[in-house]
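Deliverable D4.2, example record:
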Amino acid sequence: MLRLFLPMRDAQDNSVRWSQLREPDYEDRSSGWEEFRTNDVSVEEVSGDLSSAMGVLDEQTATALSDHLAGLQLTALEWVGYRGAPSGDRTVTVMGELYDTKSFTSSDIVAGNRIPGFVWDENTTFAWGSRLYPDSIVIGASPTTLRALHSDPNLDVVSIRAEDVVPFSFGD
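Output generated by the structure prediction step:
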């Protein structure tokens, strides 16, 4: 598995990639954006106040992620609260929240849009999950896909194990 860090936002609402401040490493598997921001002196020097991505992708991350998922038939769970009323194929409850189940493709991964909380393919070879308004997503996939994501210079990722503890809120 791996954790894909979504770029933070600066005071002018510009994307600030975690790797602009320092390269994410294994120690960051359990750090949220707030912890990363307050524990790293270079953050203040580079960008001033930062906030969580809140699940919104920048162009670089959206393009790279979309490219890696091209051709997969995916299903997504999107939090109903973003719209206020269910509108998908069917509605399910996850962690006490209502989610719409929808078909999802790589073309649905668009910069400036909020990503769904959960996405998986029909062959169960790829999945991601997060909480509402995430600063990152946790991805489980085939070894080939994980290697490709991990080696993509356009993505900020760190490997994680099933027993690792990632931040509960992911930044919400």
